[in-house]
Amino acid sequence: KIAVAREAFPDSEGRAFMSALQTNFPTDHDRLLDVLADEAMNGGDRDALLQEVGRWSVEFVVPNLSAIGRSGADGFDELLNIGGDALAMVEKTAGCTADKLEAFVSNPANLTSAMSYGSDSYKFSMQTSAKLVGLAARGRSAPPVSAEFRRDDEQAVMTAVMSLMMDEQIMGLMSANGRRNFEDNQQALREIDICKMGRSIIHKLKRLPFGTKERMLAMGTQGLDKMPAGVMQQMMSGRGGSFPGMSGMTALPSGFPD
User: Fold this and answer.
1) pLDDT band per the 50, 70, 90 thresholds, residue 86
2) Which of 16, 63, 86, 106 has its CA 20 to 30 A from that of 137?
3) Rounded-to-integer distance, Cα 6 and Cα 105, Å
């Protein structure tokens, strides 16, 4: 098992993830090693091992959602940072408009390259996995956090939403949805930069009050935890196409033509 751990992912990102898992969740670490060892003995290469890690990540995160939800405002910001990094990966790898995303996913070679060992997406996947392990470890012994919104929480979120209405991409989205001509509507939607829009949302969310962040995270993870297991696993595994560690990131946003 030690040999497998060292050789499966010998890069710095892979080792950091495995080390974080071994330190914080030794039983889960040993279980993953068993899976990797079996796959390697059956002739699986590093790309096949990476797929096993992707499946394992779903099995790990789902039962640890409540712990992640107790990681507080720092955990909230950490998840926003992961989201920002994911947007940067999409921007670098594929592009952030409908035309660019469609062009990227239409070429199977692009997806194969993005999912391969050592790629930027691989590094992001391992870094994200290590961060999620850290959040779960941080929150598992933390006291419960209220998931009930207060009036000041509602006011803070409303202020952020109203501020977002002035964002160029959000204004473009609202304008497109208000057009009566279907073709004009669709063309306007295709010109929206989802990465810029996502960064604007992340920026506003980071400026929310400390307590609001805590309760939003608790509320969000509780909502996910109550979903049927099969639905949750589909969401996390990114059914419909995704990069490793970026579940669903290659799927086009709502309102974009298929």
Assistant:
1) very high
2) 86
3) 33
